[in-house]
Amino acid sequence: MLHKLLIQILVFIFVIMLSIFAIGTILTASAPTAVGVLTTDFPVESVQIPDTDGPTVHGWLVYGKSGNGVVLLVHSMRSNRLEMLSRARFLKDQGFTVLFIDLQAHGETAGDNITFGLRESKNVEAAVTFLRKTFPAERIGAIGTSLGAAAIVLAKQDLSLNAVILESLHPTIEEAVENRLKLHFGEFGVLLLPLMLWQLSFYLDTSMDALSPIAQINNLNSPVLFISGTNDMHTTQSETERLFEAARIPKDLWIVTGARHFNMHTYAGREYELRVIAFLSKYLHRHDQQ
């Protein structure tokens, strides 16, 4: 009887372990989607940006007014460039040129695995290089949400951006994973954290420090605006405040009352637009042409 019980316990543990390993595979699985074609009320130019160290980056380019600056928009995890469409619309209305892209393993950009900013940062580097060659006289800024924000901060190449807006960005990959485990499994989710982090390190063949924006935020030599929500349980307000403290000046912080871990433009509407326009105009407009 004892022997049978022991076998049942071992089988149960084995099934649990397999399930946990399956979660690691699911977390890093690619998220390809067809983006489609926009209606004629907002004409865009389809672009394919070559990357010598990764897949061709697919995106849309919208032209603004000369001297007003260029803004790169980078979406969140398991999304695509359509997430940033509403931002592109109001930025275009303000005269900014806008490029919004699909990160690797998302949308129409190829990729085998989501890498939490590791390979996605190369897409950002390629996009910034493209913009610098295409618009040599323009100042360049970027807005990234969650994974997109991490991709900007984790870039190894000096992006030399003139302005950066980081929305809902986690300080460390450990905290990002722990928060999500707690949301799905309650406080007992913390027990799974070491195994989940080991899986990520194994699948991505990298250290956890290489995936933690707070370790590299001081290298972002750009004016930066952090945006986060008071009710965000994926990236808490205190975590955002730690990132803000670690960043170089000039910097600003906007905590959106009531916002969770989702599209800040959808939630905050006109206030979001006014704050973003003011920040980007200050650093991207060439005032000699105003």
Chain-wise SSE layout:
Blueprint: H1 2-28, E1 31-32, E2 45-49, E3 57-62, E4 70-74, H2 85-93, E5 97-101, E6 106-107, H3 120-134, E7 140-145, H4 147-153, E8 163-167, H5 173-185, H6 193-204, E9 224-229, H7 237-246, E10 251-256, H8 264-268, H9 270-284
Parallel strand pairs: 1-6, 4-5, 4-7, 7-8, 8-9, 9-10
Antiparallel strand pairs: 2-3, 3-5
Tell me about this structure:
- The chain is α/β, with parallel strands linked by helices and 290 residues long.
- It has a single domain (43-172, 212-289), classed as Alpha/Beta hydrolase fold, catalytic domain (Rossmann fold), CATH 3.40.50.1820.
- Helix content is 39%, strand content 17%.
- The protein has nine helices and ten strands.
- It has helices at 2-28, 85-93, 120-134, 147-153, 173-185, 193-204, 237-246, 264-268, 270-284; strands at residues 31-32, 45-49, 57-62, 70-74, 97-101, 106-107, 140-145, 163-167, 224-229, 251-256.
- The strands form two sheets. It has an eight-stranded mixed beta sheet, with helices on both faces.
- Strand 7, helix 4 (147-153) and strand 8 form a beta-alpha-beta unit.
- The radius of gyration is 20 Å and the shape is globular.
- The mean pLDDT is 89.
Primary descriptors:
about 290 residues, Rossmann fold, 9 helices, alpha/beta, about 15% strand, 8-stranded mixed beta sheet, two-stranded parallel sheet
